[in-house]
């Protein structure tokens, strides 16, 4: 991706996020979980000092209409329909037999979900937690509809832009209140910062779009930024959390001295706990909070702490 393309994509994110999505009330916690809130009896100060803090992105650092990177959720149907009409007008020929459904916003969603499901089935023998690359899915979509079956760099750029525009319509995002201030405060306190996130190529651009600089310039350690799309696996894959744990240990930081902050008991807290991190459940947005109380594998799992606001993390470090 060259500089001109990067700037265009960042501008698209800023424009789409200008409405300022706000978190929703998350409601009560399960009985007994209040002890994990700040000041509660289970808050992990007794476990020793915190030297690092790693974050989830969607639903934690950024409000997300889907509460995660998109597949379901509450899309902007008008925006999806507008995108579908634009694509219909640009199509050089009807789609090949068996290709994408008729172009409507819902048709685009059905196409994407269908391709994701197919890729997951193909990867089932390789990993329990497969990840897709959305830009490749949408590049294929455009090639299926183009009379000349476009290829090369131009097709790749078009696929990336379509992937981003689809995501922005299906899953609008904006910064979580207090995110920038919390990142700054943790950095100033000497905390090593990192990210482990289900993500696509456009996810790193959110930081520049909303915080004015890439994640690395904001204080996140480049060796501790782990994106699912780059590894072909999604959280809670042990490969993602294990990679971060190994890199922390290489610099003398025990995983037990690291917080991992996320909104999902399965993807975030169980993955963090398996790697030896202290999992901190972010319960500040009703859209994204995933307690997974019906999941038997989580029956005995509890977070090390729970925060309703990101700024409360500073008191844990």
Give a short summary of the structure.
It contains 11 helices and 8 strands. The chain has 317 residues and is an alpha/beta fold. A 6-stranded parallel beta sheet has the order 5-4-1-6-7-8, with helices on both faces.
What would the keywords be for this entry?
six-stranded parallel β-sheet; alpha/beta; 2 domains; 11 helices; Rossmann fold; 317 residues
Question: How would you classify the quaternary structure?
Answer: single chain
| Rg (C-alpha, Å) | 20 Å
Approximately how much beta-strand content do the residues carry? 5-15%
Q: How many beta-strand elements?
A: 8
Helix count equals 11
Quick one: biggest sheet?
Answer: 6 strands, parallel
CATH domain class name of the largest domain: Alpha Beta
Shape: globular
- Which topology of the largest domain does CATH recognise? Rossmann fold
Your description of this structure?
- By secondary structure, this protein is α/β, with parallel strands linked by helices.
- The protein has two domains: about 5-65 and about 175-315, Rossmann fold (3-Layer(aba) Sandwich); about 75-170, no CATH class.
- About 40% of the residues lie in helices and about 10% in strands.
- It has eleven helices and eight strands.
- The strands form two sheets. A six-stranded parallel sheet has the order 5-4-1-6-7-8, with helices on both faces. Strands 2-3 form a two-stranded antiparallel ribbon.
- Helix 11 links the parallel strand 6 and strand 7 (about 280).
- Helix 1 runs parallel beside helix 5, helix 2 crosses helix 3 (about 105-125) and helix 4 crosses helix 5.
- The protein is globular, with a radius of gyration of 20 Å.
- Residues about 90-100 have low confidence and may be disordered.
């Amino acid at each position: 991706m060259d500089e001109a393309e990067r700037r265009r994509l960042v501008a698209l994110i800023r424009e789409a996020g200008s409405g300022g999505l706000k978190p929703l009330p998350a409601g009560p916690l399960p009985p007994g979980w209040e002890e994990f809130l700040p000041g509660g009896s289970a808050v992990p100060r007794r476990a020793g000092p915190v030297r690092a803090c790693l974050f989830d992105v969607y639903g934690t650092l950024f409000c997300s209409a889907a509460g995660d990177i998109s597949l379901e959720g509450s899309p902007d149907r008008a925006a999806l329909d507008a995108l579908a009409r634009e694509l219909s007008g640009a199509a050089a020929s009807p789609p090949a037999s068996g290709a994408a459904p008729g172009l409507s916003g819902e048709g685009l969603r059905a196409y994407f979900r269908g391709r994701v499901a197919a890729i997951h089935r193909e990867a089932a023998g390789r990993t329990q937690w497969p990840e897709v690359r959305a830009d490749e899915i949408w590049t294929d979509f455009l090639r299926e509809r183009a009379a000349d079956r476009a290829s090369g760099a131009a097709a790749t750029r078009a696929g990336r832009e379509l992937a981003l525009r689809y995501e922005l319509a299906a899953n609008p995002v904006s910064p979580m209140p207090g995110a920038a201030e919390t990142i700054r405060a943790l950095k100033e306190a000497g905390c090593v910062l990192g990210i482990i996130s289900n993500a696509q190529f456009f996810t790193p651009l959110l930081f520049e779009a909303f915080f004015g600089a890439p994640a690395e310039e904001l204080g996140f350690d480049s060796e501790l930024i782990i994106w699912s799309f780059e590894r072909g696996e999604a959280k809670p894959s042990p490969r993602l959390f294990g990679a971060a744990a190994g890199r922390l240990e290489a610099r003398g930081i025990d995983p037990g001295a690291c917080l991992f902050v996320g909104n999902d008991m399965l993807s975030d807290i169980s993955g963090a706990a398996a790697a030896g991190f202290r999992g901190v459940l972010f319960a500040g947005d009703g859209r994204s909070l995933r307690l997974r109380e019906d999941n038997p594998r989580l029956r005995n799992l509890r977070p090390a702490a729970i925060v309703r606001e990101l700024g409360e993390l500073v008191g844990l470090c």
